[in-house]
Q: What sequence folds into this?
């Protein structure tokens, strides 16, 4: 099988493109006619660093690689539009290719995305994936990491800690039919919720939780020298995580506070919009979100448990720690 | 050293951005205000597949990774604007990082490019680089791979085979102070020439030579079911390649026809513009280009040597051949 034949296969699978795309797969670069504010994000997904093939099939690997990058576009309030895909795999693993592409195709179809191009390469041992996503958002509605103000309330769109607890079950070979494992393999993608938050201009800052609640919250605070109070009993914890706690090696709050890859949105709601937003999630139930704390002046992240307040250590996944 | 500190360093080095960039390094995605036709390209640059650290220092690796992708934007007639950079390297190789970033910074400054974001990761063994470049071009001036017509003349912007011959010298440890080795380590980037070709609308199709003259020429022909005649004595061969031929294991035409990574532009000039273009390169000398052949109706690539015509085997670098 030659690279050229592989690209032919890709062209056949992903050849349907919208009229704004003038040139796509198979040229030196893709050419797109656009307006609005463009959003660009790129992420790596490397075997034995970000995923293991013993836990996921090629289609699941494809979808998770896409979720990680598409989620970043959502966290800006953007609509994901186009994908560039890089795949390096050992020559002898060419069988991986077909099922992987099927996963990509299914995901793109489900989310109205188009593949514009990419690069194929051999690798010596591990599979290497790199996904670049191009999205867009109305010019004055983009939601960055900076922008939170003292008094803003902090919300998340769903359960925390499920993904990291699911990964531990996988690592330890505990194959209980569990939503936790599924949360790790196929995390949620909050496209609709992000659009809702953006359209009504509820948020002053937003991020997707990939490195853990506390570390990602720290990213929202650090550049503006702000702090946050988090209420322990308000943290959304799934019944799955609670019921399986006896199978896990750590206290469940270790997963909830520090576990990565939940891909829920973490955002701050401005004071003037707080009542309206509460009404929307509690009475009108237009989207799911949990209030977990508020932005404060004092730097640092503090956990409130009944009448006790303690400063939380900021930590999370770090690729370059010893 | 934490990932966060590495990103801080990157922000400090690449913090200067133009006003059209609303959000850049360190957020979930970058946000850019744009017009014109957008061009997107992405390429991998993997240790022991695309480069070896024994042949190049980190700064040279950085620059070559950028050249490969930026060259693709040029080959569309585009102006490169923004870069997204992914780097995965083993934890213990963190020293690679600083010199690599310096190379990136120097290159971006020299070519008026801006870093918008990217992703950092550890890797188990090899260094993995992935560069995405965003460029733009006027709406009706984009030059794709398709578009060549029968009778169009074929041109290249510079010497062929230097890079692959240089790689062979490196592999065999022949450290003659040679331009060939430099052609492999730091190939030319034809930004100015590409803009010239695009501005005056000389080309019907264009590609950059990364896989070898014959294979890249085949890419210009195959989808339109066209053929080409190449004149052997018109192929531009450097005096360096000729003079070092005794050190090389193959006939020099093997490098000229099939050697990859020269990154010269290969393009077809329309009949109506041929005389004007000849005048520009031969008399006005506004850019360097060599006429090497023409587009014909009969499929296949034919080499003309004096009165002999022979069909050339289409081959070049293939990541997935056995």
A:
């Amino acid at each position: 099988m030659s690279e050229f034949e592989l690209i032919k296969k890709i062209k056949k699978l992903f050849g349907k493109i919208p009229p704004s795309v003038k040139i796509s797969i198979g040229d030196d670069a893709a050419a797109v006619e656009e307006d609005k504010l463009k959003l660009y994000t790129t992420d790596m997904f490397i075997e034995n660093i970000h995923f293991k093939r013993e836990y996921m099939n090629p289609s699941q690997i494809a979808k998770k690689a896409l979720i990680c990058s598409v989620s970043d576009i959502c966290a800006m309030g953007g609509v994901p539009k186009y994908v560039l895909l890089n795949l390096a795999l050992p020559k002898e693993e060419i069988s991986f290719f077909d099922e992987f592409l099927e996963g990509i195709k299914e995901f793109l179809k489900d989310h109205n995305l188009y593949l514009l191009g990419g690069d194929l390469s051999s690798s010596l041992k591990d599979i290497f994936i790199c996904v670049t996503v191009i999205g867009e958002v109305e010019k004055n509605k983009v939601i960055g990491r900076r922008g939170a103000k003292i008094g803003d309330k902090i919300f998340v769109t769903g359960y925390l800690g499920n993904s990291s607890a699911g990964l531990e079950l996988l690592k330890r070979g505990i194959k209980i039919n569990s939503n936790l494992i599924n949360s790790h393999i196929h995390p949620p993608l909050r496209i609709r919720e992000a659009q809702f938050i953006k359209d009504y201009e509820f948020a002053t800052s937003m991020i997707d939780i990939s490195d853990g609640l506390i570390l990602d919250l720290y990213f929202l605070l650090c550049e503006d020298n702000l702090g946050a109070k988090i209420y322990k009993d308000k943290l959304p914890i799934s019944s799955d995580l609670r019921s399986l706690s006896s199978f896990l090696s750590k206290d469940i709050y270790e997963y909830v506070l520090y576990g990565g890859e939940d891909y829920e949105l973490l955002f701050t709601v401005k004071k003037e919009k707080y009542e309206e937003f509460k009404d929307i999630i509690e009475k009108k139930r237009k989207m799911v979100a949990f209030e977990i704390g508020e932005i404060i002046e004092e730097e640092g992240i503090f956990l409130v448990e009944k009448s006790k307040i303690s400063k939380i250590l900021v930590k999370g996944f770090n690729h370059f720690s010893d």
In short: The two ends of chain B are 41 Å apart (CA to CA).
